[in-house]
Amino acid sequence: MSQNQITYFEKAGADNTDDVLRLVMERSDSLGIGTVVLASTRGGTAEKALNFLKGKDLIIVGIDRDKFSPETMKKAEKKGFPVIFSHETDYDYSEDMKAAFRRFSQGMKVSIEDVVIACSKDVLEEGMDVVSLAGSSWGADTAIVINSASDFSSVKIREVICMPR
Predict the structure, then answer these.
(1) Which CATH homologous superfamily contains domain 12-164?
(2) Average pLDDT of 48-76?
(3) CA dist., res. 1 & res. 48, Å (int)
(4) Which terminus in the chain has less CB density within 10 A, N or C?
């Protein structure tokens, strides 16, 4: 049996980003996980992660290349971290499944989605335990440990690190 703490934030949103990054670093270190997948629509969360998650391999997933900060993209790519975009990826995410994951939080839905996108784009190997983090529009408020897969029916959520109540 394993006991772990889940952090619940009183509100969703960007105010939780620094705490999420700290919790992700702590939990990934304790589990020996070296890869973190993160959502960043405009580059703000990615910028913070680049500065905070030292020693981790980052996979940054945005929505649309035109909305993402070119400076942050250059910084990430210079460090060897891929920056990929959901609008440039073919994948099937049923509305029923999206709705089910949103019942936990918007960040949960996106954290799972981004891992599938990363596997579909061949920047993440399937069958690996990774940490994935996302949020509710701005910043990050959700982080999970997830076993990676390229289809939604095969992903396995191993742990919830944090999420909004």
Answers:
(1) Pyruvate kinase, C-terminal domain (3.40.1380.20)
(2) 96
(3) 34
(4) N
Which backbone phi and psi does 8 adopt, to 5 degrees?
Answer: -110, 125
Between the alpha carbon of residue 52 and those of residues 18, 49, 71, 88, the distances in Å are 9, 5, 17, 27
* Each residue's pLDDT tens digit, 135-160: 987 899 999 999 999 999 999 999 99
Q: Report pLDDT for 63.
A: 93
Amino acid occupying residue 147: N
Domains in the chain: boundaries? 12-164
71 residue type, one letter: E
H helix intervals, 65-130 = 70-78, 95-102, 106-120
pTM to 2 decimal places = 0.94
The pLDDT of residue 140 is: 96
What are the φ/ψ torsions at residue 67 (nearest 5 degrees)?
-90, -15
